Amino acid sequence: MQEIQSIDIRKAILLDNDQEAERLRELLKAQNVYMVNLMASPGAGKTSLLTQTIRRLSTRYRIAVIEGDIESMVDSYKIADEKAEAVQIQTGGACHLDAAMIRHGIERLDLTQLDLVFIENIGNLVCPAEFDTGADMRAMILSVPEGDDKPLKYPLMFSVCDALVVNKADYLPDPGFDLEVLEGRVRATNPDIRIFPLSCRKQVGLDQWCEYLTERVEAKRTKLCKGEL
Amino acid sequence: MHELPIVKEILNIALRYAEENHASAIRTIQLEIGELHDLVPEWVEKFFRFASKGTIAERAEIQIRWYPVIGRCTSCGECSVLHLRTGDELCCPLCAGKEFQIVSGKEFQISKIEVI
Lengths: 229, 116
Description:
Chain A is of the alpha/beta class. Helices cover 37% and strands 20% of the residues of chain A.
């Protein structure tokens, strides 16, 4: 009878991805570029939010979008502002974007000519939460018609994000959505998250969201200048 | 849905360590997973049987040790188990605080393998 040998591993299952994400963060740091990983369900308004955000920030920043969502159109960003570059990643029907896929997207961009990169992740509240993409910040959108119970169903996603955009706020008041209840549920496991109720369609609340993004971009720049990163 | 790429990572890590130790077969693969992760054991099992076919891991048993979600109350600092999926409002047993910093429940590692 052969003897059973026990081998201690104690390694993160997604270590390879985590390491690739860290290399991407180093690359972005070296080029002074800020990257945002934007996640949401299909139809929550990722493309609308990015289009509106690009319109407001493109006078200040040079922006690109790495596009993973099969449903959305790369061209819409070019319409939003001709300076916003967009690259589509071939995901082969994957349910999320990982760091290696983002590497392919980034390699097609000239980082020396960019300040801000958005990842439009695949429409899904489960899988994208698991994978570090190398972004400086994770943001998600929840739209009012989806209901205020989503933090109970997808706790990982709501607990890993730095910011939550509540889109389609023009649907409020809505019997299935109480903003206070939602905030309570989200802050229960993520007390520091920033929450931005807004409406892309009615163009309400977008300025606060854009100010927040600007603060984050500038905070990274200041830290880089001072050598704190 | 993301179980397949995750299973592939698990298999790759297990095979790498087994080969380094000149093993002829992997008997068990032990995982430590926090309950915040949406990992469905049935899918892990199915995908693993599929992905491991023809390798020294094809007969390996996957054992998952689940870790509960534990939060530290931001008001009083008390740690308690958070039952996230019941739909009930979270509440600190000591001070009735309603906000928590997650201190456990995000574990996602391969802890060890047993080989012959």
